[in-house]
Amino acid sequence: MGIEDFRAKLVAPKSQYNNFGHYNYRSLEDITMAVKTLLKSFKGCQCQLDYDAIMVGDWHYIKATASFIDEDGNKTVAHGFAREPESKKGADVSQITGSAISYAGKYAMNALFLLDDTKDADTEEYQSQYGNQQNQYGNQQQFNNQQQFNNQQQFDNGYYDNGGFN
């Protein structure tokens, strides 16, 4: 059985709740537990998550690489990136790095298993939840820089192959 079968059978519920935004979401731990459980019925298949710290300009990014290896040795890879903020109120350096690692890992696993955590941007629910909030990068220029970095990294790392994942 291959990655397509695994994706079709994977159920990773959004079991976490954000009290501030009033929405459910899934954490890296939720995804990992669902993957570990399903892997028991996929004999010979493996899943791996690796991390690298990279510098882009003056910013530290965490690059997570999620891999799925099927019983025939075919490997599917996806990447996720998260930036460490300069500081985070009430958090020490290890917590800041740990948070970036968790986010990058979650994004890589979401990409590998085609999990979607987003709301459609044209719905009322999305607009009421996100419409007036400042994005996580602080301003549009930082957001644009992050998008450009992500797109370049995806192509540089062979992230896309004819519109799909390697």
Would you spell out the secondary-structure blueprint of this structure?
Elements: H1 3-9, E1 16-18, E2 23-25, H2 28-39, E3 46-56, E4 59-69, E5 75-83, H3 93-113, H4 124-130, H5 140-156, E6 160-161, E7 164-165
Antiparallel strand pairs: 1-2, 3-4, 4-5, 6-7
What portion of residues belong to β-strands? 15-25%
Distance between the termini: 17 Å
- Largest beta sheet: strand ordering: 3-4-5
Give the SSE string.
HEEHEEEHHHEE
Helix and strand content put the structural class at: alpha+beta
Largest sheet: 3 strands, antiparallel
Mean of all residue-level pLDDT scores: 78
* Total beta strands: 7
User: What is the 3D form?
Assistant: globular
Number of helices: 5
User: Poorly predicted ranges (pLDDT <50, ≥5 residues)?
Assistant: 120-124, 132-137, 154-166
Q: Which value, in Å, is the CA radius of gyration?
A: 17 Å
Residues in helices, as a percent range = 25-40%
Summarize the model shown.
By secondary structure, the chain is α+β, with helices and mostly antiparallel strands. The chain is 39% helix and 25% strand. It contains five helices and seven strands.
Description:
This protein has helices at 3-9, 28-39, 93-113, 124-130, 140-156, and strands at residues 16-18, 23-25, 46-56, 59-69, 75-83, 160-161, 164-165. The chain has 166 residues and is of the alpha+beta class. The strands form three sheets. Strands 3-4-5 form a three-stranded antiparallel beta sheet, sandwiched between helices. Strands 1-2 form a two-stranded antiparallel ribbon. α2 (28-39) packs across α3 (93-113). The longest helix has 21 residues, at 93-113. It is globular, with a radius of gyration of 17 Å.
